[in-house]
Write a structure and sequence with these properties.
The protein has a six-stranded mixed sheet with strand order 2-1-3-5-6-4. A six-stranded parallel sheet has the order 9-8-7-10-11-12, with helices on both faces. With 280 residues, the protein is an alpha/beta fold. The longest helix has 16 residues. The radius of gyration is 19 Å and the shape is globular. It binds 2'-monophosphoadenosine-5'-diphosphate. The site of 2'-monophosphoadenosine-5'-diphosphate has 16 residues, from helix 5. 2'-monophosphoadenosine-5'-diphosphate binds next to helix 5.
Length: 280
């Protein structure tokens, strides 16, 4: 009997996750046998669930909050990307071993390069807004790309400094209240805070002082067009949304579990966009 590979997204909560929609779309699109299901776990269920991933029929899992760091201790090894971010978002198996990677760096850089192919050539100075888990992945992506002049702006400046010390010592920390002052020399602005997300406070930033070639990225995708992105568009700047990162980070997990490299199609994007309009 052929085995159908199962995959999951584990976290708490996970009901809001768009990942089942994405992976189930690809399974159907490529006519593959396989499954992708939600697994909402209490903290004391985590170790047991990861152990079960070793069973033959399981291919692996995505990991979301709050377990992205906790799972590392249950895995046999993690790769360079997971090590650099300090978090695993994808678990897969090779030669009976349970391995962890982080596909956010790939997802972010792929979507940015598709949206603004010349970004690296035109980027000297970058400001990352926020110093939480999402900022770690973005800062690692900047390091991978060889961008050294990074400013990390955060409400709690010590978190920004700690992040720089840990991942990219050339990065400088700035208080969020002072970020406006450095915008005239920034080529790339990336919001990784929850500000601007539906139900959260807006991100108050005047983008009129950015250079004309600047790129503005918001990794928030609810709403799809945040006020930050709308303002960037109003100033004629390149605005890059967060949904593309979500879709592209899923590509590597799917390929690792099911052996087919899937495509981020317009149809897939439209389907997820539609579900975002309905709400979380
Ligand atoms: P994630 O893992 O999604 O990045 P996180 O680790 O909780 O989430 O980080 C959230 C980020 O949004 C942090 O940079 C946080 O700033 P602090 O480190 O000062 O807490 C930022 N953030 C959240 N709410 C904010 C607010 N009202 N004003 C300014 N920054 C805020």
């Amino acid at each position: 009997m052929t085995k159908i590979p199962h995959s999951y997204v584990i976290g708490n909560p996970v009901k809001h996750s768009r990942s089942p929609q994405i992976h189930q779309y690809w399974l159907k699109h490529y006519g593959l046998d396989g499954s992708y299901e939600l697994a909402e776990l209490a903290p004391d269920q985590l170790a047991g669930f990861i152990e079960k991933l070793r069973h033959n029929e399981n291919a692996g899992a995505n990991v979301t909050l709050p377990y992205k760091s906790d799972v590392i201790g249950f895995l046999d090894d993690i790769d360079e990307d997971a090590r650099s971010v300090g978090a695993v978002n994808t678990i897969y198996k090779r030669s009976e071993k349970l391995l962890g990677t982080n596909t956010d760096i790939y997802g972010f850089l792929t979507h940015l390069s598709l949206s603004a192919p010349d970004w690296l050539k035109n980027t000297k100075n970058v400001v990352i807004l926020g110093a939480g888990g999402a900022a770690r992945a973005i800062l690692s992506a900047m390091k991978t790309s060889g961008v050294d002049n990074v400013y990390i702006a955060n409400r709690t400046i010590s978190r920004a400094q700690n992040l720089a010390d840990e991942i990219l010592p050339t990065a400088r920390s700035v208080e969020m209240s002072k970020v406006q002052g450095i915008l005239p020399s920034m080529d790339l602005v990336i919001n990784t805070t929850s500000l601007g997300m539906a139900g959260q406070l807006p991100l108050e930033l005047d983008l009129s002082t950015l250079p004309g070639h600047a790129i503005v990225v918001d990794i928030v995708y609810t709403p799809l067009k945040t006020r930050l992105l709308l303002e960037a568009e109003n100033h004629g700047l390149i605005a890059v949304d967060g949904l593309g990162m979500l879709l592209h980070q899923a590509v590597r997990g799917f390929e690792l579990w099911f052996g087919t490299r899937p495509e981020v199609t317009r149809e897939l994007r439209q389907m997820v966009e539609k579900s975002l309009e309905v709400g979380p």
